[in-house]
């Protein structure tokens, strides 16, 4: 699988930046992205609190914790190596950012060493020639550097080999005879060790501060997540409570409506009986006395009662635990 995978480059391409995966991570839905790309994408969704996959749009709550996909990372490195080998120029030819050989004519080759005495940088071939020319004299040689002049004393044009503690500067051997005579000096390597020790102490303090800040950051993020979770729970609880209250009010409204209708039927039925009695009595009276005026009929009007509850009073009673039903 590892040998065949580099041919399927599209499988290892981030759909966000459209480049080979860098620090690949895989979401719960199975899609892979660069750690930086998906982190940046989800950072923009922090306000919503809902995180989605850019490809399939599956959502996640809360924000998933992403871990590096080591298998994908190894396969991507194989792809990179294959590309580098396929596109690599002539190994000895100097490229952008490389130190060029000072001896080569025409096409410059990449320098591998720099001589602090000759003040010349050499490619591998010319470095062998340099060693052949000076077989009995060992020159001070370092890895190829484009900053040779910074390693040479500007006054005596000799290699800087001594560190002056008094002046906190690098000097050559001849400087010890002149302006740095009697100063507290050590070799450059010893000065480096001293500075390295101090640098290590400073680095330890910085790393300790980083750990403290990362701990504070982790605690703050945890507090934010807890706050978001509590807020979400509060919203869900309030929705549930208000839903139950609305249902209760609807039931009470239906009960009151039914009660009113029943009362209406009873009263209308009683009124109908009275009407019939009155009609019979009126008919009898008409037969007895034609001069009586016709009686007026009075209709009973039933008004519908509507219970109106102030929302603010409901919320207040809700938190007091008052049973509104």
Automatic annotation (TrEMBL):
Domain B box-type, chain residue ranges per copy: 148-188
Coiled-coil segments: 203-298
Pfam families noted in UniProt: TRIM_CC, zf-B_box, zf-C3HC4_4
InterPro entries: E3_ubiq-ligase_TRIM/RNF, TRIM8/14/16/25/29/45/65_CC, Znf_B-box, Znf_RING, Znf_RING/FYVE/PHD, Znf_RING_CS
Keywords recorded for this protein, A-Z: Coiled coil, Metal-binding, Zinc, Zinc-finger
Domain of life: Eukaryota
Domain RING-type: 14-57
SMART domains: BBOX, RING
GO MF entry, a single one: zinc ion binding
Name of the protein this chain belongs to: E3 ubiquitin/ISG15 ligase TRIM25-like
Gene: LOC116221197
């Amino acid at each position: 699988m590892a040998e065949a995978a580099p041919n399927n480059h599209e499988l290892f391409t981030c759909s966000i930046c459209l480049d080979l995966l860098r620090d690949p991570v895989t979401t719960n839905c199975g899609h892979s992205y660069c750690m930086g790309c998906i982190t940046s994408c989800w950072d923009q969704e922090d306000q919503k609190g809902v995180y989605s996959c850019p490809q399939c749009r599956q959502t996640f709550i809360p924000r998933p914790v992403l871990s590096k996909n080591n298998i994908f990372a190894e396969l991507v490195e194989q792809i990179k190596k294959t590309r580098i080998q396929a596109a690599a120029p002539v190994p000895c030819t100097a490229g952008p950012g490389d130190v060029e050989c000072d001896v080569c004519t025409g096409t410059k080759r990449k320098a591998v060493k720099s001589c602090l005495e000759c003040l010349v940088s050499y490619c591998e071939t010319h470095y062998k020639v340099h060693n052949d020319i000076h077989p009995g004299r060992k020159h001070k040689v370092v890895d190829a550097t484009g900053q040779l002049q910074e390693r040479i004393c500007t006054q005596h044009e000799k290699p800087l080999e001594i560190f002056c503690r008094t002046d906190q500067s690098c000097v050559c051997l001849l400087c010890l005879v002149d302006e740095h005579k009697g100063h507290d000096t050590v070799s450059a390597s010893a000065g480096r060790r001293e500075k390295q020790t101090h640098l290590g102490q400073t680095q330890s303090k910085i790393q300790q501060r980083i750990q403290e800040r990362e701990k504070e950051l982790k605690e703050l993020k945890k507090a934010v997540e807890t706050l978001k979770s509590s807020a979400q729970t509060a919203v869900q609880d309030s929705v549930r409570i208000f839903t139950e209250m609305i249902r209760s009010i609807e039931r009470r409204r239906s009960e009151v409506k039914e009660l009113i209708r029943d009362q209406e039927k009873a009263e209308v039925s009683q009124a109908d009986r009275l009407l019939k009695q009155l009609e019979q009595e009126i008919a009898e009276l008409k037969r007895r006395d034609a001069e009586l005026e016709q009686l007026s009929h009075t209709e009973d009007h039933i008004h519908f009662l509507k219970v109106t509850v102030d929302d603010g009073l409901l919320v207040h009673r809700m938190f007091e635990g008052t049973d509104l039903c």
